[in-house]
Amino acid sequence: MKRRDFITLCWISLATSMFFFFVFTDEKTVQNFMLTIVISFMYSFILWTGNALINDFLNKKFPWSEATTKRAILSIISILIANVIMVYFCNYMNFVVFQKSATTEEYFSGKYNFTNWFTINIALLISAFLHAKGFMEELKKTSKKEVVEQKLIAKSANAQFESLKNQLDPHFLFNSLNVLSSLIDENPKQAQKFTASMSKIYRYVLEQKDKELVTVEDELEFAKTYCELLKTRFEDSVDFVFDVKAENYRKLVVPLSLQLLLENCIKHNFATSSKPLVIKIFSENDTLCIENNLQVREQIKESSGIGLSNIVQRYALLTKRNVFIEKSEDYFKVKLPILSAKPQEINIKIDDENKAYERAQKRVKELKSFYGNLISYCIVIPALIIINLITSPDDIWFYWPMLGWGIGIAAHGMNVFAIGKSWEEKKIREILEKHHKF
User: What is the top-level taxon of the source organism (predicted)?
Assistant: First the structure.
């Protein structure tokens, strides 16, 4: 038990003992006052601590967030059994041991059945309050944990995506300058032409690198320009074949993916006029394929691994569809998923997530409303019972508000825990299905 809860329980016990001493005790003596305090503390600590221990044990073994239905059933069974045992023990200690107003035989003969029943109801109210309090605390912890986890995931994904995009600038520039350096010695005129083309291509790199997706058409136009650049250097040693269906032009791919894969083809394969490297770019079953005949060259230095791994990781952050790689003795092929979702549809998905969060907030408010109602019941009804027994013990009227409000709470609980809502949703689905049939 926490120190704050212990202090609160002490004050409640002291207030209860003073109330019973001044209202129900005939002989106002120090001995009776001390006895009342002992009895009050006994009831408070046994009933409160017992129910708190049961609640803590169930929280550890069967958390509300993981097994709600199972936890609810176990809570009901455990608190009923435990509270009956604790109440019979406390009343036995009170009437038989401390006050000596009854013998053990008289106590178990049924003389104190009403007292036991009344005390059990009070204990059940205390237990309901504790379980409601525990549920709300766990709900808050779970909500905070989920919010923190989602923020961390979003930040991590965003940082990872930015890091991957930032690899493109230096990677492209480094490779292009290497090509230009080779051309300056081999063919100065071609080097001038290459420089002019490179400036156009680099402009596209700067424009598109910060985008998550670009159209297949834009990426193909860029790839064709880049292929002309490569053709300037390799001439007849490299051939390019484009065969992409027009129906895929408005669909989406990761930007600069073709450029990175074309670089890989040149980098890892030798190309001569007698054995030209043939690179094919075509569409196949909702994928954009880049295939080349395999003419593996010996690597002088270890590959940086930026190209293909960059594409795979960027696709992984945007879609569940995978980048497929096929390799045989004759060819090497990479299949890029072609995505049909437009940026507007991505925003719709984000809106749907926001709506889901709003629904979750509404659900939390409904739960808080129910448990607020339950806690109020646990406080007000015992107060009404005490007032009734003090003012008119011969005229028992507290049953009516207890039953009426109790039925209201039961109906509220059925509605909040989707017993009523599931029936409503089922009827709505049935009506909609009939409507669609006609």
Answer: Bacteria
Residues sharing a CB contact under 8 Å with residue 426, sequence separation 6 or more, in sequence order: none
How many Cβ atoms are within 10 Å of 66's Cβ, its own excluded?
10
> Concatenated DSSP letters for 90-121?
HHHIIIIIIS--S-HHHIIIIITHHHHHHHHH
In this structure, the answer to whether residues 185 and 288 fall within a common structural domain is yes
User: Does residue 369 lie within any of the structural domains?
Assistant: no
Does residue 353 lie in a domain region? no
- Residues 16 and 120 both lie in one domain: yes
Which residue, among 152, 5, 32, 64, has the nearest Cα to 364 in the 3D structure? Answer: 64
User: b/e for 162-177, b at 16 or more Cβ within 10 A?
Assistant: eebbebbeebbeebbe
Look at the block and give the residue holding tokens 């739960």: 367
pLDDT one-digit tens code per residue, 171-191: 566 666 776 777 777 777 777
The average pLDDT across 117-123 equals 80
Rounded CA-CA distance 182/202 in Å is 19
* pTM exceeds 0.90: no
Whether 151 is covered by a domain: the verdict is no
* SS3 call for 395: coil
369 token code pair = 């409303």
